[in-house]
Amino acid sequence: MPVRAGLPVARAGMTVGLLGGSFDPPHDGHVHITRQALRRFGLDRVWWLVSPGNPLKAEGPAEIGRRMAAARGLMRHPRVAVTDIEARMGTRYTAETVAGLRRLYPGVRFVWLMGSDNLESFHKWEQWEWLLQTVPVGVMARPGDRIAARCSIAAARYVNARLPAWKSRLLPEQSPPGWCFVNVPMVNSSSTEIRARGDWVR
Ligand SMILES: Nc1ncnc2c1ncn2[C@@H]1O[C@H](COP(=O)(O)OP(=O)(O)OP(=O)(O)O)[C@@H](O)[C@H]1O
Ligand SMILES: O=C(O)c1ccc[n+]([C@@H]2O[C@H](COP(=O)([O-])O)[C@@H](O)[C@H]2O)c1
Fold first, then answer.
1. Whose atoms come closest to the Cα of 74: which ligand?
2. What's the rounded Cα separation, in Å, for the pair 122 and 117?
3. For the Cytidyltransferase-like domain, which residue ranges apply (predicted)?
4. Global pTM?
């Protein structure tokens, strides 16, 4: 299948936030940070990248078709697309995905989005410094992880590249490296907790 088939459309000059995740299952925390990201980072679009599987997690997630269907059922917004881009491109590491998207969408300004728990472990990601030096990164507060994230290895190494929260709407225009932490109102949902309750069985 050509990679373009089934991929969202974006024009050169658009700003697109990428929210990668297992979405196993998707929940209102994902919806909440997506809406916050649109507003706080002044994005034209957000794309959910429903991952074939987090390379750092030993256990695989539920089948991707099921996670995609659940995500599409939950995330309804005219400027948000739920995608299986990584499965289509055959990528697993975020750096590979971002490199592929930049080739497929020349002129589109991508911003990598994540909750603060991911900033804490960001330095363990494949080619994380390349990623930070290639796309701006928008980080949103998540219960329990705000302080540790701001003291993380990545945050400390790139302290000079941090954009203050009051300038968050400038993030997409920022020449990398650039990242911004926004203290959004927090929603205390997690996929782990939903699975533990037995409300989603893999
Ligand atoms: N409640 C939340 N508040 C802020 N960010 C969140 C929240 N839930 C998920 N995220 C962020 O959304 C992205 C995708 O998260 P993911 O699909 O792993 O959900 P999760 O609830 O963290 O899942 P799990 O518990 O299985 O690790 C990550 O960047 C994560 O930090
Ligand atoms: O590229 C990596 O090394 C890497 C390591 C850990 C997580 N990620 C990405 O981070 C996103 C969030 O992952 P998860 O499993 O916490 O939802 C998802 O897009 C993963 O592919 C990427």
1. 1
2. 9
3. 18-197
4. 0.97
